[in-house]
Design a protein that fits this description.
CATH architecture of the largest domain: 2-Layer Sandwich
CATH topology of the largest domain: Alpha-Beta Plaits
Largest sheet: 5 strands, antiparallel
Strand order of the largest sheet: 2-3-1-4-5
Radius of gyration: 27 Å
Number of strands: 5
Number of helices: 6
Number of domains: 2
Strand content: 15-25%
CATH class of the largest domain: Alpha Beta
Order of helices and strands: HEHEHEHEEHH
């Protein structure tokens, strides 16, 4: 790789890393091409990206980005999965992949550019509900008081309507 190619690669990585808020380093030694393609599909399914990187170039590319704390951890055969969205979905996908492929190793994670996570912390992160599920829960909690109030307001009207309906059904029967 020429010097110009290295500079272009560093700049491309830096652009990607600058936009990312979350990243996970994965050791992929011993994986087949089919397994790596499966990994890429799983990562892409979470709206994230996965790249196999040259360690020195990746370490340089992290400088001045939210992923800077990972710079010192690029060693051995390293792949990096990153996104700007939901870290939980990405952690779940990677954790499931590692369970299915024991030769792969999830080394580190970085959430919001500041919290370096290791083994147990990564497993805990993967067990959390995803961003979409948390939003749905929050929405249901926010809507609950309004839903209850609406039911209370509608209840007297519904009761009056039922009484009138029952009375209307009795009238034709008694007038015969």
């Amino acid at each position: 790789m020429t010097r110009d190619e290295k500079i272009r690669e560093i700049e491309a990585l830096r652009t990607d890393f600058a936009a990312a808020r979350h990243a996970f380093l994965l050791g992929f030694a011993g994986l087949s091409v089919a397994q790596i393609e499966d990994l890429r599909r799983r990562v892409a399914g979470t709206g994230s990206a996965y790249r196999v990187v040259k360690n020195r170039l990746a370490a340089r590319a992290t400088e001045g980005t939210p992923l800077a704390p990972l710079g010192a951890h690029f060693r051995g055969e390293t792949g990096v999965a990153y996104n700007a969205g939901d870290p939980v979905a990405l952690a779940k996908a990677l954790t499931e992949f590692v369970k299915d492929n024991p030769t792969a190793r999830l080394r580190l994670g970085l959430v919001d550019g500041r919290d370096v996570l290791r083994d147990r912390e990564l497993e805990t992160l993967a067990k959390l509900p995803g961003l979409g599920e948390l939003r749905a829960r929050l929405l249901s909690v926010l809507q609950a008081p309004a839903t209850r109030l609406l039911r209370l307001v509608q209840t007297p009207g519904a009761q009056v309507a039922r009484v009138l309906d029952a009375r209307a059904r009795q009238l034709p029967e008694t007038s015969n």
